[in-house]
Amino acid sequence: MLDREKGEKLLHQHVITPHILKHSYAVESVMRALARRLEPESEDLWGLAGLLHDLDNDLVDWQSDMSLHGPKTVELLRNANLGNEEMYQAILAHNPATKVKPKAKFERALYAGDPITGFITAIALVYPSKQLKDVKVKSITKRMKEVRFAAGANREAMASIEMLDIPFPEFAELSLNAMREISEILGL
Asked: One Pfam family this chain carries (predicted)?
């Protein structure tokens, strides 16, 4: 079942870390934009996956065992009768530690869409205004080459968007514009 309202309630029930809540909304916006670009009929499904992909963030000790991140989210979603197998597979595939490789379009989109939101946020935060409106696509593509900048950002995952025939600069622009649409929620 796809029910964004139910999903948002579940998100706020399980995720208490403020930056993870913002990240969840950012990934939702990027996933909706990717769905409109790649598979318009799946926008609600892709958006819900983006919103809920880190549902287990505050519930599992994934820092000591990263493979726990994803399976617990899927368990929570199954118990809530929210989503479907395609969505569960994408959520598992967004975390390389689960050993589930992203293969389908949906899985690859979430795998790439997850880290770019944090990367764009990091870029915005180095601007004096700390606003997304001031971030340029050129800055995103330039910073991709600077491995010391936002070193934790999975550049391989972000660059994998090209496997879906979306050039990285186009992906950067699509993601930036999606995040700008919810800049008030993100505080950027």
From this structure: HD
Q: What pTM does this model have?
A: 0.97
* Cβ atoms of 42 and 106 closer than 8 Å: yes
CA 49 to chain centre: 9
CATH of the domain at 31: 1.10.3210
Angle at 176 (CA atoms; ends 59, 171), nearest 5 degrees: 95
Residues near 174 by beta carbon (within 8 Å), at least 6 away in sequence: 30, 33, 34, 37, 166
- CA distances to 38, 78, 111, 152 from 119, rounded to whole Å, are 22, 30, 14, 9
- Domain of residue 74, residue span: 4-186
Distances (CA, A) of 145 to 30, 52, 140: 22, 30, 9
- Output the pLDDT for position 166: 98
**Domains identified in the chain, total number:** 1
Reading the block at residue 96, the tokens are: 């390389």
